[in-house]
TrEMBL record:
Family statement: Belongs to the non-flavoprotein flavin reductase family.
Species for this entry: Actinocatenispora sera
Record's protein name: Monooxygenase
Residues forming coiled coils: none
Region of interest called Disordered, as start-end residue ranges on this chain: 1-20
Any one GO MF annotation of this record: FMN binding
InterPro entries reported for this sequence: Flavin_Rdtase-like_dom (IPR002563), NADH-dep_flavin_reductase (IPR050268), Split_barrel_FMN-bd (IPR012349)
Chain ranges of the Flavin reductase like domain: 28-172
Stored PANTHER family: FLAVIN REDUCTASE, FLAVIN-DEPENDENT MONOOXYGENASE, REDUCTASE SUBUNIT HSAB
Length: 174
């Protein structure tokens, strides 16, 4: 039997076929996340996309992961590269998040970058933290994949507040 919090009335209970996509997005949007840009160095130059499914997975060994959509154009390049850099954005980088979530633009045009030490993937200047990672495994996960990766190098700049995504809007938490 499904268990629901007593003070939240479900729109439909029990749901016979699961939530509709719009409702699913709306409800899941109540979970606040940080915003990252996952980059890699492909044969034709750098690629990257905005990602909020990034998560820490394991301490020993240090593992992280994210969920690229099967529709992602950057994911096959990242996968082929075998590694990526997770750039955790600051509140001052909202426009970067929008750029890397939009198709058909030169995403790297207005951002400074340097190669990450292990993979050579772009570290975006101004990010509040970055993690240089090599892919350990890829697991199908519905209409996404789960990319599990080992962390090879990290750094953080704690002086700036993070960018936060909540209910379809950008904000911060400091
Ligand atoms: C805040 C935010 C978080 C996102 N998180 C993800 C994610 O975790 N996985 C994903 O595949 N796409 C995610 N997207 C969507 C991609 O950034 C977007 O579809 C992008 O255009 C994909 O680029 P690509 O086709 O070059 O891979 C997110 C978008 C936004 C605005």
């Amino acid at each position: 039997m499904a268990v629901v919090p007593s003070d939240i009335e479900p729109d439909e209970y029990p749901a016979p076929t699961g939530p509709e996509p719009d409702e699913y997005r709306r409800v899941l949007g109540h979970f606040p996340t940080g915003v990252t840009i996952v980059t890699a160095l492909g044969p034709d130059g750098p690629v990257g996309l905005a990602v909020n499914s990034f998560t820490s997975v394991s301490l020993r060994p240090p593992l992280v992961g994210f969920f690229p959509a099967h529709t992602s154009g950057s994911w096959p390049v990242i996968r082929q590269a075998g590694g990526f850099c997770v750039n955790i954005l600051g509140h001052h980088q909202e426009s970067l998040a929008r750029t890397f979530a939009s198709p058909g633009t030169d995403r790297f045009r207005d951002v400074g970058m340097r190669p990450a030490p292990s993979t050579g993937a772009p570290v975006l200047l101004g990010a509040v933290a970055w993690l240089d990672c090599t892919i350990e495994s890829i697991t199908p996960a519905g209409d996404h994949d789960f990319a599990l990766a080992r962390v090879r190098a990290i750094a953080a700049d704690s002086s700036r507040p993070p960018l936060v995504f909540h209910r379809g809007r950008y904000g911060t938490c400091d």
